[in-house]
Amino acid sequence: MSVIDLRSDTVTQPTPGMREAMLQAELGDDVYGEDPTVNRLEAYLAGRLGFAAALFVPTGTMSNLLGLLAHCERGDEYIVGQQAHTYKYEGGGAAVLGSIQPQPVEVETDGSLDLERVAAAIKPDDFHFARTRLLALENTMQGKVLPMSYLAAARDFTRRHGLALHLDGARLFNAAVRLGIDARDIAGHFDSVSVCLSKGLGAPVGSVLCGSSELIGKARRWRKMVGGGMRQAGVLAAAGLYALEHLVERLAEDHANAARLGEGLRALGFEVEPVQTNMVYLNAGEQAQAFKATAAERGIRLTAAPRLRMVTHMDVSAGDIERVIDFFASVRR
Ligand SMILES: *Cc1c(COP(=O)(O)O)cnc(C)c1O
After folding, report:
1. Which terminus, N or C, of the chain has the lesser number of Cβ atoms within 10 Å?
2. DSSP structure string for 290-326
3. CA 181 to CA 136: how far, in whole Å?
4. What is the CATH number of the domain that holds 259?
C-alpha cells in the first residue's frame, strides 16, 4: 500500500528528470559568484518575474528574512498578517536578527490585509514610534489567491504612504496557475518577492528572493552573515530550474485534486472551506486526533489540527484522492 502524505506539499520526492538535471548540473563556487547553474536560476527567475536581480537561498524562511533585513533598518517596522508566515512561523527572525519590529494585523477571510486597518497601524513620524517601512503580504495565503484588484490597491496604497511592498510568494505559481495568468503580473506589484522551489514545485531545497539590484545586493550580504552562502549550490539550483521549466503548469492537477477532495468531503457532510488552490481545510474539531490515527492505519498521513489542512502535490494522484475520500466515508457516521 503506497503512502498518501497530505500534511504538506513539502514532502515531494524529486522526479527522475529533476534528479537527472541535478546530476548533470555545471557547478562552481557560488560564494565567488562562480556557479553557472545558480547564476542561471537567479537570472531566469528574475527575468520571468520582471525583476533586475535574484538570490538563491536554502529556505523560504531565509528568503523572507533577507527581504525584511534588506528593506528595513534597526528600529524600523513591517506590517504583516497576524497569521502570516513572515510573522508567525519564522521564529521571530526579523525581530531577533534585524531589530525590526513586526506590527501584525488580522488577516481578512480572503487572505488580504484590510488597507484601512493597515493605514491605522502606520506610525506617524515621531521619535516615540518605530518607523513603519514595509507592508508584507502572502499569496497564496492558506491556499487563497489574493484578488488582482487588491494587489493593485495595495501597490497604490504603499506608494502613497512611502512603504515598500514585499510578497511572501512561497506559492506564487499556485496563485498564477489558478488565475490563468503570468506570475509576472502578480510579482510586478511588489518591490520584492520570495518564491519557494520546495513546495508544490517539488524541488528538494531552495527559495529565491527577487528584487532590484540594490536590494538583492544588500540581501546577498545578509545571506553571508546568517550563514546562507553555499558553494557548489548548482546541484540544488538545477532542481529548482528544472521545476520552473517543467513543473509549473502541472500545479493545475494539484488544484483539481484538491477541488475533488473538497467536493467529496462536502458530499459526505463534512464542513470544508472553499478550495481555491492545493489546500483543503476540513473542520475536524475534536475528531482530528482520531482521524489522524485511523488514517495512518490506511497509509494516509494527516496532521491532527482541528482545522485540518490537507495539501495536494505531485506525489498525490487523482486515484489517491478517491482513497482519501473512501477513508473519510468510512469514519463518517
Ligand atoms: C513554507 C513557507 C515559507 C518558508 O519556507 P521554508 O523553506 O519552509 O523555510 C514561507 N512562507 C510560506 C507561506 C510558506 O508556506
Report:
1. C
2. HHHHHHHHTTEE----SEEEEE--TT--HHHHHHHHH
3. 22
4. 3.90.1150.10
Cβ atoms 180, 152 nearer than 8 A? no
Q: Using CA atoms, how far apart are residues 141 and 289, in angstroms rounded to an integer?
A: 25
Claim to verify: residue 96 and residue 196 sit in the same structural domain: yes
Question: Residues 281-296: pLDDT tens digits?
Answer: 999 999 999 999 999 9
Domain assignment present for 240: yes
Q: Is residue 96 part of a domain?
A: yes
Shared domain check, 328 and 203: no
Same domain (yes/no): 121, 174: yes
At 86-121, the pLDDT tens digits run: 999 999 999 999 999 999 999 999 999 999 999 999
Q: Tell me, what amino acid is at 17?
A: G
- Whose Cα sits closest to atom 3 in ligand 1? 60
Is 292 within 8 Å of 322 (Cβ atoms)?
no
Q: What residue ranges line ligand 1, CB within 6 angstroms?
A: 59-61, 64, 85, 138, 168, 170, 196, 198-199, 207
CA 332 to ligand 1 centroid distance, Å? 33
**If you measure from the C-alpha of residue 120 to the centroid of ligand 1, how many angstroms do you get, rounded to a whole number?**
28
Same-domain pairing of 89 and 224: yes
CATH number at residue 190: 3.40.640.10
Residues 6+ apart with CB under 8 A from 126: none
Return the ligand 1 atom nearest residue 207 CA: 7
Whole-angstrom Cα distance, residue 241 to residue 211? 18
How does pLDDT run across 56-97, given as a tens digit for each residue? Answer: 999 999 999 999 999 999 999 999 999 999 999 999 999 999
- Pair (157, 219) in one structural domain: yes
pLDDT tens digits, 143-173: 999 999 999 999 999 999 999 999 999 999 9
Distance CA 276, CA 227 (A): 36
